[in-house]
Amino acid sequence: EKAAYAPVFQPIVDVATGARTGYEALTRFSDGTAPDLVFADARVAGLEHELELATLAAAIAAATVLPAGAWLSLNVSPDLAASNAKLIVMHAVQERGIATRIDVPPSEILERITRFFDARLNALAAAGVARERLILDPGMGFFLGTNPQTSLAVLGRLPDLADAFGLPLLVSVSRKSFLKGLAGPGAAADISAAVEMFAARQ
Fold first, then answer.
1. Does this model's pTM top 0.70?
2. How many CB atoms lie within 10 A of CB 106?
3. For residue 99, with 0-12 CB atoms within 10 Å meaning exposed, 13-18 middle and 19 or more buried, which class applies?
4. Alpha-carbon distance 187 to 78, whole Å?
5. What average pLDDT does this structure show over 14-31?
6. Which among 31, 65, 73, 138 is most buried, taking Cβ atoms within 10 Å?
7. What DSSP letter does each residue of 83-115 carry, written as one string?
8. CB of 145 closer than 8 Å to CB of 93
9. How far apart are CA 111 and CA 160, in angstroms?
10. What is the C-alpha to C-alpha distance for residues 21 and 32, in angstroms, rounded to an integer?
């Protein structure tokens, strides 16, 4: 079944060099209706924020096809930016561009995560985003590197991350590939449940 909407990415070009440096995420609706009309209808129905969040999520999910190193511009309405909607700040060792396989030693991962969140939180504060709106996701699996032990190291340091930033954490381990590497494919479901319970208790 065809989706009702889909993101498209408009290139942003450096006029001095002609190089594509980033992309602006736009939404197109499958029935051809202009986006401003769809959002106007959603506003009348009281669903403008829900539609906006859904289209933003779709754009972020589809952005993995963009070239490595390219930045992504997301259009956010003033009402949503000024709202109390929670925002998730997700860490990845790749930091930008398409996720690639990187080997990060367990002993180095906490410093990398801390440095990443420090930079992102400072940028969000400078943009006027209230700190209490933020939820931190340290990432799991390949977002932390190819070594399964690196993900385990982060799970064991969740209380340290929470204390360091004073913000809630979001941890998603369900069906992550690093669990298969630890327990084998046949036991992945069982260890996934166990790890989820461990994370919830931290």
1. no
2. 18
3. middle
4. 47
5. 88
6. 138
7. S---EEEE--TT-SSS-------HHHHHHHHHH
8. yes
9. 11
10. 29
